[in-house]
Every structure is written in structure tokens, then in C-alpha cells.
Specification:
single chain, alpha+beta, Beta Polymerase, domain 2, 2 domains, six-stranded mixed β-sheet, 7 helices, 6 strands, globular
Length: 195
């Protein structure tokens, strides 16, 4: 019973850390939470689904009045950016898609260009500000790979763009973030009454 209770406590504190401190990696948030609770973080950590559920619960309790509108606005902004980047088969992923984003989290897009330079040139010629970030480590076909990462300033909103190889578009991740195409995001917004 105690390990289960500790996993719940870690998941709940992880959710607070993610929202209030802007930590984006679940693994980092879980380790911080375990350390703050004085628990061993080597074992008995909650899985990512438990942290996502805790994030949803956090928003229901503490942000219930403005979270739905906040997420809808972020999704609309994501759709605008995706339409601009449509040549690179953009897909929305992460906290904005899941509905768990807080004020400190960016919109996360997966792009699938032939080369990273293609995206950079497109942004430069479109007068869109961006900065290069360290490569992100992602899973593809059961292997961990690094992908170039850009942070785009889309009308004052941060959009994190992970530049996957084109072949990755055919592979919906089995474990990890789900993705939504432009069409799927439009459908989601229509279902919410915000599109």
C-alpha cells in the first residue's frame, strides 16, 4: 500500500512542478518530486500516464475557470503556426494537445522536413523569429535518436519545433506523445466549439 501511495504523491507533486516551475520533462519532474518528498526515486516512480492524470486533476482543481479557454487559445495559435508550416507536415504534440499545458509551457510541434535547413530558410524568408536549441532526444522505431530543435516566436507565443526525419511521419509513437495533424486539430477545435 505504501509504494502505491508514494507513487500517487510523487505524481501529484510532479504535476505541480511541471505547471508552477515550467519543467517540461516528466522524468525530471518525477525525480525532483521524489527528492522533495524524501523518497527513493530509483524505484517506484509513477508512470507518465499517472503524471498526465495528476496534471489534468491539478488543472481541474486550481485552473478550472480559465484552463479550457486557455487551452483553446493555445490550440488555435498552434493551428495558425501549423498552417504556416504546412509544407513540413506539422503535427501538434505534448501538453497543448493533451490539455495539460500551463503558462510556462510552449506549444510543441513535430515537423518532418527533408532537411532542417529547409525549415530555417522558410522561417527567415517569412520574417519569423526563431532560435536553435540543443537537439532533443526522441524515440523512433524503438531507438533513441536526436532531432534538431527550434523555438519559434509565433506572435509572442513560444512554439517548440522538433525536426524529425521525413520517414518518422509514418510512425505514430507507440510510447510517448500522441500527435495531431492540421485536420485532426481542426476537428478537435470544432468539437470544442472554438474553431
Amino acid at each position: 500500500m505504501e509504494p502505491t501511495r508514494n507513487r500517487i504523491r510523487i505524481a501529484q507533486l510532479s504535476a505541480r512542478i511541471i505547471v508552477e516551475e515550467g519543467v517540461r520533462e516528466y522524468a525530471v519532474a518525477k525525480r525532483k518530486a521524489a527528492q522533495r518528498l524524501g523518497l527513493d526515486w530509483g524505484q517506484n516512480l509513477p508512470d507518465d500516464d499517472s503524471v498526465t492524470a495528476a496534471l489534468q486533476e491539478y488543472h481541474r482543481i486550481f485552473r478550472f475557470q480559465h484552463q479550457p479557454g486557455f487551452i483553446r487559445r493555445l490550440r488555435q495559435t498552434a493551428l495558425e503556426a501549423m498552417e504556416f508550416l504546412q509544407n513540413f507536415s506539422p503535427h501538434l504534440a505534448g501538453a497543448v494537445l493533451e490539455g495539460t499545458a500551463g503558462e510556462l509551457q510552449p506549444i510543441t510541434l513535430h515537423l518532418f522536413p527533408d532537411s532542417p535547413e529547409e525549415v530555417i530558410w522558410y522561417l527567415v524568408t517569412g520574417n519569423v523569429r526563431y532560435r536553435e536549441e540543443p537537439d532533443s532526444i526522441v524515440e523512433l522505431d524503438g531507438r533513441r535518436i536526436t532531432v534538431p530543435t527550434l523555438v519559434i516566436d509565433w506572435n509572442g507565443t513560444q512554439v517548440e519545433a522538433l525536426l524529425y526525419p521525413p520517414k518518422a511521419l509514418r510512425h505514430q509513437p507507440k510510447h510517448g506523445p500522441r500527435r495531431a495533424s492540421i485536420r485532426a486539430l481542426r476537428r478537435l477545435l470544432d468539437e470544442e466549439g472554438g474553431g
